[in-house]
Structures are given as C-alpha cells and as structure tokens.
Design brief:
This protein has 179 residues and is α/β, with parallel strands linked by helices. The chain contains five helices and five strands, in the order βββαβαβααα. The protein is globular and about 60 Å long.
C-alpha cells in the first residue's frame, strides 16, 4: 500500500509518502514541505498548495491519501488556514479518484508512539526509527506527514474489515425485513 500523508497548513504543508503493509517494515519514498509566502493573497497560497500536492500525486501515484483531521484550536485564523489547506489536499485526491482518510492528531500519535499525547519530538523520533532514517525529517510538519501515512497503513486493514462487517450486517438486516 502506498500512502501520501498530508499535514495541512498554509505556510508549511507537510507531505510524506510511505509504502508497505501492516506488520512489515515500511519504506519512505519521499518527504517534503509545500511552502507559501505569508504575505501572499490567500487565493495564491491555496493555489500553491494545490500545485504542490498535485506534483506529489503525479510523482508518487499513491493508492490512498491520509490527511490530518482539523480540530478546534484557540486561534481561529490558524484553524481556517489549516482547514483550507486540508480541503485542497482532499480535492486533489478526489479529482483523481484516490480514497482519502482523515486521522486525528491524537490517533496518529497513538499509532506511531503508543501515546495520543506524544509531543512532536517523540513523533519525529519514532518516525525516524520506524522508517530506518538517519535523522528525523525537518521541519516537524514533514515528520507529521510521514506519521499520518504510517498511521493509515497500520489502521486501514482493521478499518476496512469493520466497514465490511457493517455493510454485511446492513445487507443481512435488510434481507431479514423483506423476507
């Protein structure tokens, strides 16, 4: 499974591509950050994020895109920019028919470090270890994007089985009502 992880942001949008399956060593295929100038118009910043994400999608051809779920913060302006960058990434994936999964920050931290309250240094250290890198990816947004991809690779099989079980239950329940 090849997953493009996106840690959304207007100034720095972390992007990382990881390939592998749960229970086996994972491989980092690429990591980076799409940057936009703080003083640029919002529309131009969003366009730059879109162009950056499209470039990564073209180069790495992921099967899934994992995006950090936006959560409420005290700074509404930061939340809005993060949400807009997140929407751009989801739009780029949807345009290509690539499934998108949203993962909360605590879900990602728990998957990668074992604790949903891990700090950025702990996430970076575990990403480095799990992907057998010589140093943590910088900036932290890049490491977070890789953590999102790892989280999705590890959690997708269980989520898929759960969705299939719910679908079977729904079909069986519907058949029982019509019989």
């Amino acid at each position: 499974m090849r997953v493009l992880g996106v840690d959304p942001g207007l100034t720095r949008c972390g992007i990382g591509v990881v390939e592998g399956v749960a229970g086996r060593p994972l491989t980092m295929l690429g990591v980076g950050v799409v940057r936009t100038p703080v003083d640029a118009d919002l529309s131009h910043r969003l366009l730059a994020v879109e162009q950056g994400v499209e470039q990564w999608l073209d180069e790495h051809r992921p099967e899934f895109v994992a995006v950090e779920r936006v959560f409420s913060q005290h700074n509404v302006r930061t939340v809005m920019g993060t949400a807009q960058a997140s929407a751009v990434a989801m739009l780029c994936a949807a345009r290509r028919g690539i499934p998108v999964a949203l993962h909360t920050p605590s879900e990602v931290k728990a998957a990668v470090t074992g604790s949903g309250r891990a700090d950025k240094a702990q996430v970076g250290a575990m990403v480095t270890r799990l992907l057998r890198l010589s140093a943590p990816p910088r900036p932290a947004d890049a490491a977070d994007a890789l953590a999102l991809a790892i989280c999705h690779i590890w959690r997708a099989p269980a989520q898929n089985r759960l969705q299939q079980a719910v679908a079977r239950h729904t079909v069986n329940a519907t058949k029982g009502r019509t019989a």
